[in-house]
Specification:
By secondary structure, this protein is an alpha/beta fold. The protein contains 10 helices and 14 strands. It has helices at 16-22, 80-89, 107-121, 139-146, 160-166, 177-190, 208-221, 246-260, 284-293, 332-342, and strands at residues 11-14, 37-41, 69-70, 73-74, 77-79, 96-100, 126-130, 148-156, 196-202, 224-229, 270-271, 277-279, 344-346, 357-359. The strands form 4 sheets. The chain has an 8-stranded mixed β-sheet with strand order 5-1-2-6-7-8-9-10. β11 and β12 form a beta hairpin.
Length: 362
């Protein structure tokens, strides 16, 4: 992380996409993608106190402290004053601003103060990616009073076993599955339906059925799920693990879209003997139309001024050469690729050898 004197709340890190949009960094977006959410990350000289196995910011990461890289791209640090001034001057570029917490003793107090300032000085709705392990009593009420319009919680893992292995005791981390879900319940009460949700990472070891059931759990609470495909990060404990296969992610994206938009309940979806999705509980003609729209495969995140997420995170969970969450409307070739990917069912990996891709119906 950064040296002392360049820490939050005076300084914030931002995604490379945000830095490019604000003119701090140079570059161009693949296929003329545009960022619609100003993504900001708290930053401290001590770094993040958590130790999530898949995260480059984990205190045990081999690459922590070697630069500003996170999620395979640069996250440069700039003064919050400069960020606000440039964002205000480019008001039409963004539909939302999001503040992401890390695990640090000052993180919660700093987040509240930063949210208050952003809400006061920018004409943008403010989201917070909250870290319940850094909360104080009444944390949700404090974020609401500060001006946060939406709170999301990075539960990430779809099951308690996966959570504990990669975020809790198994990784030597401080996070608790029960505490995270209690925070979700508090967010549901304080912020209300449609104003809270969670991040979920597909491909950490859960089955497709387990992920779908977790998405439905969030929906039943009144929230929404923002999906990421697992993609290994250099320096993390899971850097050698295979990325989430696109076939698994595509089916989960489609299921999430149907559930979060109230078209289908997870209870009517069908699975094979390996808990892989084989039926979505909706007639084929209607399902085909939904797939051909491409909408289920666009980035899921906090809303903006249009029909799609403001938080489109260009290429945030996979390289541009292997897009998992599309940050723009899909064209015909994209949709045909997605259809081919969904038709692949990987045989479960065994100790004897690697998994295989098997087209459905073979």
């Amino acid at each position: 992380m950064n040296e002392k004197g360049t820490a939050s709340p005076e300084y914030m890190r931002m995604s490379l996409a945000a830095a490019m949009t604000l003119g701090f960094s140079h570059g161009s977006f693949y296929r003329d993608a545009h960022l619609h959410c100003l993504n900001l990350l708290l930053d401290y000289a001590e770094g993040c106190y958590a130790n999530c196995s898949y995260c480059g910011l984990a205190r045990g990461s081999k690459d922590r402290g070697k630069g500003d890289s996170f999620i395979r791209v640069q996250w440069p640090s700039h003064e919050l004053d400069q960020i606000i001034n440039r964002a205000a001057a480019r008001g039409g570029d963004f539909q939302r601003v999001c503040v992401s917490m890390v695990m640090h003793p000052r993180a919660f107090e700093d987040t509240v103060n930063i949210v208050e300032r952003l809400d006061r000085e920018l004409e943008l709705p403010v989201s917070v990616l909250a870290n319940p392990s850094s909360f104080t009593d009444g944390g949700m009420e404090a974020l609401d009073a500060a001006g946060a319009g939406i709170v999301t919680i990075a539960i990430d893992a779809a099951t308690e076993a996966v959570f504990e292995k990669y975020r809790g005791r198994g990784s030597g981390g401080p996070h608790s599955w029960d505490a995270y879900w209690r925070s979700m319940e508090e967010a549901a009460v304080v912020f209300g339906k449609g104003r809270f949700g969670c991040h979920l990472i597909v491909g950490l070891g859960e089955t497709e059925q387990q992920m779908v059931e977790t998405i439905q759990r969030v929906r039943d609470m009144g929230g929404s799920s923002h999906l990421f495909a697992f993609y290994p990060e250099q320096g993390s404990e899971l850097e050698a693990r295979e990325p989430c296969h696109p076939s698994q992610f595509r089916r989960i994206q489609l299921a999430r879209f149907l559930i979060d938009y109230g078209m289908v309940d997870a209870g009517v979806m069908e699975y094979d003997e390996h808990q892989r999705l084989v039926g979505f509980g909706i007639e084929n003609a209607r399902l085909d139309g939904i797939v051909r729209s491409g909408d289920p495969f666009r980035t899921s995140g906090c809303p903006g001024t249009g029909e799609h997420s403001a938080c489109n995170r260009p290429f945030g969970d996979g390289p541009a050469s292997d897009i998992r969450s599309f940050p723009f409307a899909l064209d015909r070739e994209d949709i045909e690729l997605v259809q081919r990917q969904m038709a692949i069912y990987r045989e479960p990996r065994t100790e004897a050898g690697a998994s295989q891709d098997i087209p459905v119906g073979s």
